[in-house]
Design brief:
single chain, 66% helix, mainly alpha, 517 residues
């Protein structure tokens, strides 16, 4: 009885630890500013205003994240950056809760489930994905939900319906971020291999085909955008990224070699966010092999949850290393599947070794928490300061101050446009923006690699063409933020056309107002 009570106490403390980590993630998310958010939030806003994605404005990613943001913006009617951050965090919270439920249902081990949840929430790469309103946490939640459905019904009568739903969720993940398409292969292979007792015909008809059908159904909006205007769809989801690589090379970014790639892999593996789960995985794999008597002479197909999780880990790691240059948030993709693999191994290990793995997972969670503790405590301590502001409210207040400055002149606020590569500072107060700058700095910086016809086709501009754009439709104000050289054409235009710099306190940069006519 004493041992049971002590384990309940430790479980409760571990859940409190997970709650603290979740609160720390939330605090960092609402205080963080990222230039990536400018494109995602603006795209959601424009969609909510009735503009057409890829046609009326560019958006160099798949369409599902702005569609989700737009649906929420129609409900909130304002506080767009803050609302998008809440949506982004909600998807991460959903993924965390789902992982915890999966662990509890599979192992009936509350302490291990709480430790696994803490490992998830303490992961540095997931933190990097959670702190910006973009498209990183959305596909994590969708793909993890597909995983849960797939395994729960893999040998049950409702398998076709569940696999159809899993396919739709996978398509939703791909619709949020294109490189999640690589996860389709592990699911398709698992559908062909399991359940082992079923015939191949049954696996195809009852598993693979429903999975494929659900994927097609979930991809219907993608097919709509592709069919409506394939050229624009292809540019925004592929062509831009190829040109962006060219732009980076011209700007002095060295392409990754095998040496730098291996060095990056070493650094990531050495990061506690991966090192500690990998140590737990290695111990679990060795323990399970020892218990099951694994041998090269009599290889057997592992259980479905182990196989699928291992395939997802392998594919997602390769996928995370594919884009160049590499950013930390890319490596959020493998993180949940490392933990589902640990969960799968733990579920098949017998006692007393299972308890050893339980304790090791708890120790790993505590150690990883100690690593991220300074980040969370610093953010939470700042949140208690009277001067501390959330990024969403700061952007909204700055937008209204800019609007007030524009109103001081003779500009018509109904038509006034703010020229900036940080358009969130305009849309929060309803100021007009240029569709050509709706992606922030992203399309602008590669604009000179496009022909004039392509720029017109894809609603783009370039550093060399931006003066002509503004001369044809002069902005009421120009805001220079912290995007560096890409903003120089805007600054040059403001200074050459006699725009008056005004007090920019709280504007997030330098504000220039068009002089009265």
């Amino acid at each position: 009885m004493k041992q049971i009570n002590s384990e309940r106490l430790v479980t409760a403390l571990t859940l409190l630890l997970a709650a603290f980590l979740g609160l720390g993630l939330f605090s960092q998310a609402v205080h963080n500013n990222s230039h990536n958010e400018q494109m995602y939030v603006t795209a959601g806003y424009l969609l909510a205003q009735g503009e057409r994605l890829y046609t009326d404005f560019a958006f160099v990613q798949m369409p599902y994240s702005p569609l989700i943001y737009a649906a929420v913006f129609k409900l909130t009617g304002g506080y767009y950056l803050f609302s998008a951050k809440l949506v982004n965090f909600a998807f991460l919270a959903f993924a965390a809760g789902l992982l915890w439920l999966l662990a509890r249902r599979r192992t009936r081990d509350d302490l291990f489930s709480a430790a696994l949840l803490s490992l998830f929430l303490a992961n540095y790469y997931l933190l990097r994905a959670a702190i910006e309103a973009s498209n990183y946490t959305i596909p994590i939640a969708f793909s993890l939900a597909a995983y849960a459905l797939f395994l729960r019904y893999i040998d049950r009568p409702r398998r076709p319906l569940a696999f159809f739903a899993a396919g739709a969720l996978l398509a939703a993940a791909v619709g949020a971020k294109l490189y999640y398409a690589t996860l389709l292969a592990p699911f398709a292979l698992a559908a062909l291999l399991y359940p082992v007792a079923a015939s191949l015909r049954s696996r195809i008809i009852g598993g693979l085909l429903p999975l494929a059908g659900g994927t097609v159904a979930g991809a219907l909006p993608l097919l709509y955008y592709a069919a409506r205007d394939w050229e624009r769809f292809a540019f925004n989801n592929l062509g831009y990224h190829l040109l962006n690589t060219t732009w980076r090379e011209q700007s002095g970014f060295a392409p990754m070699t095998w040496g730098t790639l291996l060095g990056t892999a070493r650094d990531i593996l050495a990061n506690p966010s991966y090192l500690l789960p990998v140590v737990c995985l290695a111990l679990a794999a060795v323990t399970l092999c020892a218990q099951k008597g694994c041998s090269l002479r009599r290889l057997r197909l592992p259980a479905a949850d182990i196989t699928l999780s291992a395939l997802l880990v392998a594919v997602s790691i390769v996928t995370a290393f594919t884009p160049q240059p590499l950013f930390p948030q890319y490596f959020a993709m493998p993180a949940p599947f490392l933990l589902t693999l640990l969960l799968a191994l733990h579920a098949h290990i017998a006692q007393p070794q299972r308890r050893i793995l339980q304790h090791l997972t708890l120790i790993a969670a505590v150690l990883l928490t100690l690593v991220v503790l300074p980040r969370h405590t610093g953010s939470l301590r700042g949140a208690l300061s009277p001067d501390d502001r959330w990024a969403g409210s700061e952007a909204r207040d700055a937008s209204f101050r800019i609007r007030a400055r524009i109103a001081e002149g003779s500009h018509d606020l109904a038509t006034a446009k703010l020229a900036t590569v940080s358009p969130v500072y305009a849309i929060e107060s309803g100021l007009g923006i240029y569709p050509e700058l709706s992606t922030g700095s992203f399309v602008l910086r590669i604009g000179d690699l496009l022909s004039e016809e392509q720029r017109a086709r894809f609603r783009a501009t370039s550093p060399s063409a931006i003066a002509a754009l503004f001369d044809a439709d002069p902005p009421a104000a120009i805001l220079i933020t912290d995007e560096g050289a890409v903003e120089l054409p805007l600054l040059d235009y403001a200074q050459s056309r006699g725009y008056v710099e005004v007090d920019a306190e709280g504007f997030g940069g330098r504000l220039y107002i068009k002089p009265n006519p």
